[in-house]
Amino acid sequence: MNQEPIDYRTGILASPSEVDAAEWNALLASQAQPTPFLRHEFLAALDATRCAAPDAGWGAQFVTLTNARTGRLAAAAPVYLKGHSYGEYVFDWAWADAYKRNGLEYYPKLLCAVPFTPVQGTRLMAENAHARRHLAATLLAFAEQADVSSLHVLFPTEEDAATLTDLGMMEREGVQFHWLNNGYRDFDEFLATLEQKKRKNIRAERRKVREAGVTMRRVRGEEISDAEWRFFSKCYRQTYREHFSSPYLNLDFFRRIGETMPENLLLVIAEYEGKPIASSLVVWQRGPGGKGGTLYGRYWGAIEHVPCLHFETAYYQPLEFCIEEKLDVFEGGAQGEHKMARGFLPTVTRSAHWLAHPAFADAVARFLESETNHIHAYVHELNERNPFR
């Protein structure tokens, strides 16, 4: 109780390169819920390849707190000045439209998030609770003093969200679908826990891929060749073309994370007559002490159509990998109620929001109260029809 108050030096950094990578990663490793996506290597790759850069509407404004006494990094958050709402997966397009209809500017806004990555994890990296609260207060003060409409913190942990809401930010909930490993010995033991119809459908989907003559192989990050990265990037771009959209990431980005964080990567490749026709990239990490861990479904694409190939490449192969490696969770990414038929269950995610305009803040607060009630009813309904026996 008699400790001296800690003095922090605040930094607003225009690039991840302005903070020491080892210090950043050491702070991340000390958090209760770190993810590979907040590693310095991942964020630096987004910056260096211009995937998340000012000319793409992502202006880095990373907030750091340095302990003035020790000189060590005490807290940090990945913050961006955004000129649009693409690549976020917590949708505020209606809020931006309401601002526009009332003659107000919604952009720029401040966003604390990992670009293009709807994965829950720590956002307020801090060495202790005091530093975490100080960092949250600094974020809010930064937003209040900047010429922005709002501040948004996407997919924080429950602890981070509580810190932010205690300071007055509004909480928003969403739903994702995650698969939980109940100590399964193999894929068949997992299938045995599902309802008969679901089990039969999965076996039929996998059989269709085999009978089409498609073979599967998994390549760990250290072994991914440049030709395989080029093929995967081609598949990734094809997915965006099919959805009449532009890809967020480029081949240089994938090459960079392949070089700097290969231990977190797994590439699944589908081949027909010895030639690759589809692939998916998943990201994974071990849990504390090398036990358990999490697999994150990320990107998928195909250059040829084979019935059910998407499910085999992006779901069943990663699930088998989870079981073999004894990982605890497979996070399937944003949205996707269809994942429930494959053993994934609804999981509530969070975000926190502050709007500078009082009237709009009140309107959004009322909207969020109603939306939260709908989310809870939706999750209850989904749990009532879960796929397990």
UniProtKB/TrEMBL annotation:
Pfam families: FemAB_like (PF04339). It comes from the Bacteria. Keywords: Transferase. InterPro entries: Acyl_CoA_acyltransferase, FemAB-like. The keyword Signal does not apply. GO terms for molecular function: transferase activity. PANTHER family: ACYL-COA. This is GNAT family N-acetyltransferase. It comes from Paraburkholderia acidisoli. The lineage of its organism: Bacteria, Pseudomonadati, Pseudomonadota, Betaproteobacteria, Burkholderiales.
